[in-house]
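batch_manifest entry 22 of 60
target: 2-dehydro-3-deoxy-phosphogluconate aldolase
source organism: Streptomyces tabacisoli
requested by: lab member K.T.
priority: normal
notes from requester: please return tokens only, no post-processing; we will run our own comparison against the previous entry in this batch. if the run fails, retry once and flag.
--- input ---
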Amino acid sequence: MDQQLSERLADLKVVPVVTLPDAALADPLGATLTAAGLPIAEITFRSAAAADSIAALRARHPDVLVGAGTVLDPATVDLAADAGARFVVTPGFNPDVVARCRARGLPVVPGVNNPTALEAARAQGLTLLKYFPAEASGGLKLLDAMAAPYGDVTFMPTGGITPDNLSDYLARPHVTACGGTWIATAARLAAGDFDAIGTAARAARDSAARA
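--- output ---
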């Protein structure tokens, strides 16, 4: 299952990280991302609408690969799993969260930004890791240095990824995909500006294809 997720992420290369304030936005979001050729979203548990949004996306857009982000504890893993999330992303490495994800049959991508956390995750057999917060932690310089001793580990950098640096990250052989909030921003969602979201998603897809 983890390998299937890695392969799908490597194919799509960009993961829109989205906080939906209202589950009613899930349907137009799914339609927009699908039309843009980027049928994937990480719905963060930074709003009370997260679980309902995941469920709505799964029900109305079954071809969209829906993950749950900002999962901080086992109880939230259960909420994500019950809503139909197909993978979990965490900001840090929490062995209790990893254990619950495995118990629920969910691939998990834990966050790391140092070798100690990386080795803790790797010791649990996890080799696709979120590099977070990417730019604040040291950007490509730290990522390249951290990846060098661990040839079996690949990363999903998130945090500070923008259209300006996306290609630089994706050009690294140890980067599977990048997560980013610039596609479906809070301002665009609040304004219902799905045209802008679609334009940003298409641009990200095209940039990834060239990387």
